[in-house]
Design a protein that fits this description.
two-stranded antiparallel ribbon, alpha+beta
């Protein structure tokens, strides 16, 4: 018999409430294995590499006028 994958699948983020009413968030997998984690990494890399290079070109060419 086939087992349903959704029954075996663990939640990615679990939220637990402690006895002192503080909230504990547990991440079960690395974010690089999920689609939103990969998207976040790509957005961070674009923001740290491409945006400064584009701004550098803009300042160089606007200063030459």
């Amino acid at each position: 018999m086939k087992k349903n994958n959704k029954q075996n699948k663990k939640k990615f983020i679990e939220k637990r409430v402690r006895h002192d009413n503080s909230v504990e968030i547990i991440v079960n997998e690395t974010p690089t294995k999920t689609w939103w984690g990969k998207l976040a990494i790509i957005l961070i890399l674009v923001g740290m590499v491409l945006v400064p290079v584009v701004m550098l070109f803009i300042t160089i060419f606007s200063g030459s006028n």
